[in-house]
Amino acid sequence: MSEFDYDLFVIGAGSGGVRASRVAAAHGAKVAVAEEYRIGGTCVIRGCVPKKLLVYGSHFADELHDAARYGWTVDQPRFDWPTLRDTVLRDVERIEAAYTSTLDNNRVEHFHERAVIAGPNTVRLASGRELTARYILVAVGAWPVMPAFEGSDLCITSNEVFHLPALPKRVVIQGAGYIAMEFAGIFNALGCHVTVVNRSDVILRSYDEAMRDRLLQITMARGIEYRFNSPIRKVARQDDGSLLVHAGDHEPIPADTVLIATGRRPKTDGLGLENAGIALGANGQIPVDEYSKTSCDSIYAVGDVTDRVQLTPIAIREGHAVADGLFGGNRRTIAYDSIPSAVFSQPPIAAVGLTEAEARDQYGEVRIFTSDFRPMKNIFAERHERGLYKLVVDAGTDRVLGVHMIGPDSPEILQAAAIAVRAGLTKADFDDTVALHPSMAEELVLMR
Ligand SMILES: Cc1cc2nc3c(=O)[nH]c(=O)nc-3n(C[C@H](O)[C@H](O)[C@H](O)COP(=O)(O)OP(=O)(O)OC[C@H]3O[C@@H](n4cnc5c(N)ncnc54)[C@H](O)[C@@H]3O)c2cc1C
Ligand SMILES: NC(=O)c1ccc[n+]([C@@H]2O[C@H](COP(=O)([O-])OP(=O)(O)OC[C@H]3O[C@@H](n4cnc5c(N)ncnc54)[C@H](O)[C@@H]3O)[C@@H](O)[C@H]2O)c1
């Protein structure tokens, strides 16, 4: 009989927690997971999945607009927000059920309540029950940051945006990161007036400057307005129920919905980490080593709560590696270089590896290849938006250090290019690859 109730107790059934639970259980461990909200976590319930479905839903606006050029008559198309919203929410329920079945099929016990750390090997559930485990994995994710200003309680975050009772006519979005640019695109395509207010004059700071500039140009042409260097000072309710947003020195901006998208902070408040002697980092994150182990030998942490890279595939990889290391005899680290990423803006940006500026800093001499092209489908539809692809190449070794793209379907194309960058392929390897014609992707091997 083991001295502990479980081999592994996981706190948080999101991307990292569910993967770690099921892999540990498959290795033969006795596993339990506690979830305070819904199984699936941010990505499934109020992140990647419903967001991407809204991107798909809003994209029909472009397709319907362009359809006439392709010979289709679509009489008076109308959009109904509650239909899209509710269908998306039902799909989220379907995926939540699939995640729950995965836990059940792997004999992972789940508790639908909050859990906190009571000691190095003990968790306390909201019901007061205490359970022990040889190892504890903290996978509690992150939570939207709400800057302090008068009227912030009148604003929403990405947690609420999927549940809006009606489509707002005017949306103000604070921030210019992933969530801001993705929802700016969704609301703009659905016909809302969108104003992005940002504290600096840079959007999507981590992406290549040329891609950011192109997105800015295209989205402004599509009607999205920007107010830079203008953090929100105050939001006030008007007599007619609408909102007035005071940002920077600009004229107040009228709005029906104000979405705050200013980053996500590790969800460690009140988690009891001090009971295991674990000190938090400056952003509330749990510091871990390369095996995701905290300063307490029996406690590990993965995903957004560690504030390394806030992306689902990273949380999943970290969770998988912890389970393999503890119960599968395969202790390993994971690679954080060459992580592909995308912003599902309209058009989307996708990238892997170093930006031009980063490569110049790190390598000195680099060669840059670009393709600035109008996709065939845009030309035919008389849509003037241009795609832009860029290869960043180390002049010394000819190795491709970065691939950057903005244009239709760029995330779909980038995944394959990321394999090439990860494998350390050279520009000559790209040149040697025969183009797949006609496609946008062929631009990747035609840059000279
Ligand atoms: C709007 C939005 C869009 C996104 N889009 C993308 C995208 O397109 N691609 C991408 O890769 N990433 C995207 N992300 C990021 C991605 O969702 C996260 O990086 C990922 O979900 C992190 O996984 P995790 O396991 O660390 O945490 P989470 O998935 O957040 O899971 C943590 C879980 O722990 C639970 N929990 C917290 N505290 C406790 C406690 N004390 N007791 C019990 N349970 C607890 C929470 O309820 C939650 O279910 C998006 C995020 C948002 C907000
Ligand atoms: N497609 C994707 O992969 C995807 C999509 C959505 C979210 N995510 C993940 O979720 C995380 C959170 O997304 P996000 O968009 O909230 O964060 P973000 O870090 O991408 O962007 C935050 C934005 O808010 C601004 N900001 C920060 N603090 C501010 C303040 N006090 N006042 C005014 N502006 C402020 C920043 O300048 C920045 O523009 C992302 O970092 C990303 O890792 C990924």
UniProtKB/TrEMBL annotation:
Q: Which cofactor does it need?
A: FAD
**How is this protein annotated for GO cellular component?**
cytosol
Q: Where is the FAD/NAD(P)-binding domain?
A: 6-319
Return one Gene Ontology term, BP aspect: cell redox homeostasis
Please share the entry's free-text remark on the cofactor. Answer: Binds 1 FAD per subunit.
Q: Where does FAD bind?
A: 52, 304
Q: In this protein, which residues make up the domain named Pyridine nucleotide-disulphide oxidoreductase dimerisation?
A: 339-447
Q: Which residues bind NAD(+)?
A: 175-182, 263
What UniProt keywords are attached to this protein's entry?
A: Disulfide bond, FAD, Flavoprotein, NAD, Nucleotide-binding, Oxidoreductase, Redox-active center
Q: Would you say which domain of life the source belongs to?
A: Bacteria
Q: Write out the catalytic residues in the record.
A: 437
Is the Cytoplasm keyword given for this protein?
A: no
Pfam families in the cross-refs:
Pyr_redox_2, Pyr_redox_dim
Q: Which GO terms describe its molecular function?
A: flavin adenine dinucleotide binding; glutathione-disulfide reductase (NADPH) activity
Keyword Disulfide bond recorded: yes
List all disulphide bridges recorded for this chain. Answer: 43-48
Instruction: Spell out the family assignment given in the record's similarity comment.
Output: Belongs to the class-I pyridine nucleotide-disulfide oxidoreductase family.
**NCBIfam families xref list:** PRK06116.1
PANTHER family (UniProt xref): GLUTATHIONE REDUCTASE
Protein name, entry field: Glutathione reductase
Species this chain originates from? Caenibius tardaugens NBRC 16725
Q: What is the lineage of its organism?
A: Bacteria, Pseudomonadati, Pseudomonadota, Alphaproteobacteria, Sphingomonadales
